[in-house]
């Protein structure tokens, strides 16, 4: 089977004349795997369709949000109705409270939250609030964790930054970046040492509790507990960036799965059901700092707009039904088994990790526990695997350092097809 990508290629050429690199977010450009990006025309359920009419089983799912699958009828219906009433007012609506209440119920570590338009906005605002609350400037982040493209975070960030090998971006003032201290993930000793020197200057510590932006790196037993304990000891605000892990690692996110209560939480992706949304929230005393209740300024013309709120509300309604997460877990486990068996049968050494509905197959035979061990993966082999999967109608994230996602719409047949394709692709890789 050979698929043609003629139209995608034409569209990409045209896009490059007016958009940097032809894309509006770097990792879409397929730089890490070679070839040209597919231009997508439509999507439904577990499938996406490109401009040349090819069909793919989608494990990117818009980088996480589409946990129900694409164009879920209940979401689409509600969106149509909302659109008819106007798309933005710049004044409050009850939809904002409705979605906030739904989220707070599932994330009891948060007393209040503020809606924004992206994960990036959520993390940028969260550290500003933490700095305002503590009166301190420095932050600690963990190597390989990606928190969006804010200046403070583009220091040893994962995702596109890792893929493209630009851990530090030009344009970030040195004076600003010096307030960001990075520590390896899963390394409590390194964290303790850093804190012995720096604790009095640290406003907050931010991390992805499961690192999805260098694939899928799980916290070692005791790591998150240790982080939580240290932040309490030194009066540092602990921020869980659950933009990806929220509603993915479990309904209540990684904080529920690992039983940790962060002081603040950032969300995005799933809570917008495919529309641009982010949110940050936390303890009452911390959130009381946020304008207009408090002095820390943060605002947004389109924040909490009715369409995004509607997509979020309908998505969470479906996710909150009994057995939804049992069903998701079964699908994810079946896929895990299928991919692991395929690699084994093909005689390819890989390490597979999964947390709920996010997963990653690393082309390495060593355990992946942090940025350094993730980077030791064979990216050339991944690129060949990726291309072979694409040829067989399976759309994976075009980088070794991205998580894969599964949705409620993925069928047993999709998973079987994927596992069969993976066996052949592993052999060819
Ligand atoms: C995707 C992501 C972000 C950034 O969200 P955007 O909506 O792309 O700005 C931040 N943190 C994590 C953990 C993410 O996965």
Describe the structure.
This protein is α/β, with parallel strands linked by helices. The chain has two domains: 173 residues, Aspartate Aminotransferase, domain 1 (Alpha-Beta Complex); 247 residues, Aspartate Aminotransferase, domain 2. 39% of the residues lie in helices and 14% in strands. It has 15 helices and 14 strands. It has a seven-stranded mixed β-sheet with strand order 4-10-9-8-7-5-6, sandwiched between helices. The chain has a four-stranded mixed β-sheet with strand order 1-2-3-13. A three-stranded antiparallel β-sheet has the order 11-12-14, covered by helices on one side. A hairpin with a 2-residue loop joins strand 1 and strand 2. Helix 2 runs antiparallel to helix 11. The longest helix is centred in the C-terminal third of the chain and has 23 residues. It is globular and about 60 Å long. The relative contact order is 0.17. About 1% of the residues have low confidence. Bound molecules: pyridoxal-5'-phosphate (PLP). The site of pyridoxal-5'-phosphate has 15 residues, from helix 4.
Overview features:
429 residues; alpha/beta; Aspartate Aminotransferase, domain 1; Aspartate Aminotransferase, domain 2; 2 domains; 15 helices; binds pyridoxal-5'-phosphate
Topology:
Blueprint: H1 6-18, E1 40-44, E2 47-50, E3 55-58, H2 73-84, H3 94-106, E4 112-116, H4 119-134, E5 138-142, H5 159-163, H6 174-177, E6 180-183, H7 188-198, E7 202-207, H8 223-233, E8 237-241, H9 253-257, E9 264-267, E10 278-282, H10 284-287, H11 306-319, H12 324-346, E11 351-355, E12 358-362, H13 371-375, H14 379-391, E13 394-395, E14 404-405, H15 412-428
Parallel strand pairs: 3-13, 5-6, 5-7, 7-8, 8-9
Antiparallel strand pairs: 1-2, 2-3, 4-10, 9-10, 11-12, 12-14
Helix pairs in contact: 2-11, 3-11, 7-8, 12-15, 14-15
The structure holds pyridoxal-5'-phosphate.
Pyridoxal-5'-phosphate (PLP) binds next to helix 4.
